[in-house]
Structure formats: structure tokens, C-alpha cells
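Bench log, entry 3. Co-assembly request; chain sequences pasted below exactly as received.
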Amino acid sequence: MRPPILFPLFADVTSLFKVGIKSAELLANLGIKKIADILWHLPYSLINRRAVYSIDEINSGEIITIALKVIEHQSPHKRSQPYRVYCEDKHQNPAVLCFFYAYPSTLEKNLPVDEWRFISGKAEFFNQMLQINHPDYIAADVRDIPLVEPVYALTAGITNKFLMRLVREAFSKLPVFPEWQETHFLAQNKFCGFNEALKTAHNPKFAGDLLPNSSSRLRLAYDELLANQLALAIVRQKIKKQKGRSIEGNGEFRRKVLAMLPFKLTAAQEKVLEEISCDQKSPFRMLRLLQGDVGSGKTIVAFLTMLNAVECGFQASIMAPTEILAQQHFETISEMCRTLGLRAELLSGKIKGKTRDKILSDLRQGQIDILIGTHALFTDDVEFRDLACIIIDEQHRFGVHQRLNLSAKGNHADILVMTATPIPRSLVLTAFGDMEYSKIDMLPEGRKPVDTRVMPEKRIDDIISSLKNKLDKGERAYWVCPLVEESQKTDLAAAEQRFEILSKIFGHKVGLVHGKMKEKEKNEVMEKFRDGEINLLVATTVIEVGVNVKEATVMIIEHAERFGLAQLHQLRGRVKRGVKPAVCLLIYGYPLSNTAKARLQAMKDTEDGFIIAEEDLKLRGGGEILGTKQSGFQNFRMADMSVHQDLLLTASKDAKMIVSEDPELKTPRGQALRVLLYLFERDDAVRTYLSG
Ligand code: ADP
Ligand code: MG
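Structure output for the full assembly:
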């Protein structure tokens, strides 16, 4: 249950004065749905409404505040002309205020003749006379004009003034929280309280107040990072606390499998297996992350890990993110299992009714040694006789947190999470917490580099004709069109259009997959591509391409500049598996920023996913590293991974200490930390694992 103290902040924005459905829709474009979101929407700049005594001090174009005496009102003769109010400063320098389509009565009330008013707005000069069009502020008391004003990111229909009002109202709902940080920590870092930090962040006085490393923003970032780390630490601790089993087979299965393989394990694979075996042998539960680039050979490592458990009489299971990947794992594994006298089964969406029931009952009776399926299929009715080893193949998505919850229920199984996305250490921390991790940091020998080229849009015709050559020779190609969130519709349309154009040129062997298709439809297209019925696959998203097609040698990516480097790297990895040399064409659109240029260049320069990932973090910051929400990466409102890495490490240590000293969050600080977890919406762990 969310603590009641937070209720006001979790109310919908429409509960605010004069915020209707229309404004709410516009605010949603800024990620603002509830009142707390307004507080998270920090200004990125400020306006200094410099106060001046006389008009002589003003430069044209400046935003200023000045006291003016009202001399005369002049109504326009025609509606298209402005209403003018003539004024003068204290040296009798003339000025004019202009209003289009104004209400004279309001202006007469606000600007009475012969009186002094403080006016703030953008100064312009015409014929050496100061002119201010539609002043931002008109006030009798200068204290009613903010001399420094925050500037917020806006969207059409939402003005800065409107947002400023919302922020003011949101602050009026902000409760006084119990302090969740330790006093000495605050003192040591010269951090103020949470509310004060938030206030300063919204009321910058100096440009420095806007920087992510200003004291107030550091404090807020730290709070958010601590919430993130604490949630992960709670899950981890609960999983680790459950007793595991000591698993150590005699190695017979492994020896046999290794003898069957047409290759030798790489040194990296061996090292990682060693680390995993060590965990398996220990009496505690394993919780390990295995990172390895696409094609680094994680599947065989997973298989050998499972065999170790099976050898000891237990069951093992691997969850894949998609049906096709589950099927691919099944194909890799099942034949070897048969040779070993073991039974592997695939639990896919296609398997229904009696067949499914039979698998489930065999599973319960322990007649199945290894079960392969998608994440979605591991629901409550799937019961094992004795499951000792769970492999979660995440590929590129990171919903791990929830899935750890799921797989943690009740059993003592070891957990190995595999990911194909090379991510920097700091992001591993934010996505997985302080989890042990292993890295397969080399590819098997003999992999050929991909010929990567960066090309402008205008060369698309050349690209198509060289593509034709390749397809004629029996090769297969991916053509990826990006999907940008703000305009899903038009981007989908762009992909469909591209599909049509390519279909006209290449005929019926062109396929299209996109995110709006049903899983089943997607699978059908993907299967056709795998079987060669389709040889050119147009796709809108990365996820759909998560499949192994050896014949695919060409990867064409339109608007490559819109993708995260990690995504580009994944996509390029798709064409690396074959025997033939592969090419990857990164097509960019205009205008191309310098950062975008540097990023595409980095793609051309290296194929080492870890280098690319670090580069991407430097160039874009962690929030964006995978480009899309689909990645499932934790989104931060206050923290910025390209700046706050040190804070993250501190938060990670702090979180560890908290769960070891106060595992149930029962102490006063623990209670305050619960509020923090709910405030930053990292509360699943609390709800699942903590009582009261
Ligand atoms: P990923 O890490 O992307 O899951 P896979 O496990 O699918 O990679 O392996 C990619 C390909 O490399 C497979 O065809 C696999 O058989 C092969 N492979 C795995 N390990 C080695 C190795 N040590 N030497 C040569 N080929 C290997
Ligand atoms: Mg894999």
C-alpha cells in the first residue's frame, strides 16, 4: 500500500485548479500525468528579468523589468493595429507598450494614466523609442514579478507561465517527508532537505543551479538512485537469503557435449563456466548476470550450466524473450539432449490442449529434464518436480526486476540472467543492482568483421541497386526503419511505404514486420525469412529481428542516427553469423548533429560492444542509451547516468548497508525509505517482499 502521505502527489493533474482533460492530454506529452510528475519536470534554463532604472541602460532584445509612468492610452482605428499605451521612465524617456486584440477595459484598469507600474518583457527599439509588445508582467509592486524565472521544456499549447503556476500548486501539495537520508551523509555532502532541494531546482538563481551537479540536483539524483538501488537490493537479498543447493555433477554430460561440438570453447566461455560452476557448487543460491555480445556463444554456456544441474537429478529451464528464440534454443539443445538420454521439451504458445497438459504433467513428475519456453509461458500452472536452475535469456530487454520476482517465488533454484546487450558497469548497476556478473568478452575465432558504411539518404538509389546484386546471388537482407515514439503512426506509415517501394522493385520475396502485428503474424513472417521464402525483410523495431538467420548478410538501417548505439550494434550483430562476409549500411538523414556524426563514426570504428556502449553513455547519457522504452531500462527523472556515476556507486553501497542492517525497513529510517521507494515508484519490491 502506498503511504497516505504520498496521496496528494499521486493525484491526477486534472485535480488541479483549471486543468481539464485538454490540458492533461498536452501535459502527458511532457510525461506529466500526476502531480509528482510536475515536480520532476525541472527547468532547463532561466530568464533573468534584469531590473533597470532607466531606458538608457537597455539593449534591444533584452528581457528587462522597468518602472514606467503611464501617460496616455491610444485605441487603434483598425482591429489589425495594436492598442498602444504611451509611458515614460523617470528621465522622461518615452516608451510604448503594444497590445494586439486587447480588451481596452482590462488595460485601462491595469495601466491607469499618471500612475507608475513595473513592466517586464522583451525590449525592442523603434526610432529610438523603447517598445514592449505584450509585456509578460504588469505590476504595481515589483515583488509580484519574478526577477529570475525558470524556463521549462514545453509542448504546443502549454506555456511557461502555465507550467509555473502548476509547479506552484504542486508545491502546495508537497508534504513534509521524514528524512530518508542519514544526517551525517547530508552534512558531509552539504545537501539540504528534499523539499528545499526541489524548491531550489525549480527556482534557479544562477545558471549553475541548472547544472546536474549543482548541490540541489545532486541531492535529488541521489534520492532517486538510492530508491533504484534499494529496490534491487531488497529483491537480491530476499533471493539470496533463500537457501540454495550445492550442485556439482561428475562432468560426464559436459564432456560428452564438448566432444560432440564442432568447436572448442573460447577461453572466455571457459572462464565464465568456471565462475558459474563455482556458484552452483556453493550452498547459496546463484544469482548471476551473464553478459556476452551477440554471437559470443552464450547458448552453449547456458546448456552446460543446465546439464550440471540435470546431472545431479534436478530439472533446469530456460526462458527466452520470444517464441522464435525459444524454438531456436530448443533446436540447439534437444538433439544433444537425446544423445545424452535426456528429455528437453518446448513449451510454446503453439502448444495447446492435450499436448500442453501432457508436458505439464510430465514436468511435474520429473520426466522432463530441461524445459524451454518464453517468459510469458512460465505462469502459475507450470510446476516442476524439482527445478534447480533457471536461465533467463533477456537478449535486449530488461524487465529482469519483475522476472526475478516471479522466479523467486518459493523455490531455491539458481538464476542466471543472460543479456546480449553490452552495457557499461554503471548501467548494469541500475538495471540489475549489485548482482554478480560474468562477461564473455571475446568472440569465437574466425568471425569476419562486418563492412560498416555510413551513407547519406540521398544515396538510397545506389543502395537499392547494390542490394539487388546481393539478393540475386542468394543472400538475404534486413531493412530496418526506425520507430519513434512521438509519431508511431507516421513512422509505421514510412515503413509500410518503404515496404511497398521495395516490393515493387523486388517482387513478392519482400516481407514486413512491425510492432503493431500480432506475435503470431510476426512469427510467420520471421519463419519465412528464415526459410528463404522471403529474402528481404523490412522491419520497424529491433526486437523483431532477434533471430538467427545465417544466410542474412546485409543490414540496412534507415535513419541510423535515431537509434542508440547499442541498438545499432545489436542490429549489426544479426548479419555476423553467416559464413559470407557481411555489410551494414547506416543511412542517415539531415540534419545530422555533431554528436550523431560522432556516434555513427564510432559504429564504423569498432565492433566491440563494450567500447560502443561506453561511448554511447558518454555521448548521450544513460537514459537514452538504448534509445527506446522497449529496452525496459529504468528511466530516471533526476539522475543522469553520464554525470552521476559516482553517486550511483555510493547509492549502491548505501543500499547494501541498509538491507543488511534493516532488512525489513522497520526502523524510522527504514520507514522513511519506504516512502522514498513509493515516491519514485520503485515499490514492487516492497509489495512483494516486505511485510507491513
Ligand atoms: P549468443 O551469445 O548470441 O547467444 P550463440 O550461443 O547463439 O550466441 O552462438 C552463436 C554461434 O556461435 C552459434 O552458431 C554457436 O554454435 C557458435 N559458437 C558458440 N561457441 C563457439 C566457439 N567457442 N567456437 C566457435 N563457434 C561457437
Ligand atoms: Mg542467444
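The radius of gyration is 31 Å. The CA atoms of residues 470 and 476 lie 8 Å apart.
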